[in-house]
Amino acid sequence: MNSSIIQLLVLAAIAVFLILRLRGVLGTREGFEKPAVTRAEPANRIGRPDFDVIEGGPDLDITDYVEDGSDDAKALAAMKRVDPSFNVSEFLGGARGAYEMILMAFENGDLDSILPFISEDVYEAFASVVDERQRQNLSVEANFIGISDMTLVDAQFDEITKEGEVSIRFKAEMTSVVRNAAGEVVEGSVKEIKRMKDTWTFARKMDADDPNWRLVATGE
What we know:
Mean pLDDT is 80; it is low at 3-54. The protein has helices spanning 3-26, 60-63, 71-82, 88-108, 120-135; strands at residues 139-157, 163-179, 185-205, 214-219. The protein has 220 residues and is α+β, with helices and mostly antiparallel strands.
């Protein structure tokens, strides 16, 4: 065997080696495959699978907060059928913010700022207290600390009027001081933390263009 043939065999062996090495490193592709894309997990999804609703299965957006098959769950599901954009988790997040906003507006006597978010009955009840404070020349200094717990306790839906109602029990903390015209403290203390338990009911017509829920009832 002459030297030229030996050189060709050596080069062929090297070429085969390089091809196999490249295939092992890069893998193979057929056609015009799109590159792999990894979907980032949403920041607000913790300990859940990659889906919220399995066809024929429970809606986790509902069953995370009320018992599956309960009257509350059926009412929430009915709200979703009328307004597919309704999301229980998002609603509760909004209710958390609304609680602080409405409570502090009441404490500060600034009811005009919350008119779109409270019913006429609630406005009148709040206004009577604010007016009485003003009549006695009392002022309130309030500081909202935070909500320690909130629980969805009731949900109702009227098939005729398409109005949904959701009641939430809040546990919150704040400080509140009432002063007279002379600046003297007549109630409360800046150092005393006031622990509150409130059950608020929010309502909305689910087929309405207005997305705002309104506070329609308050209680303990």
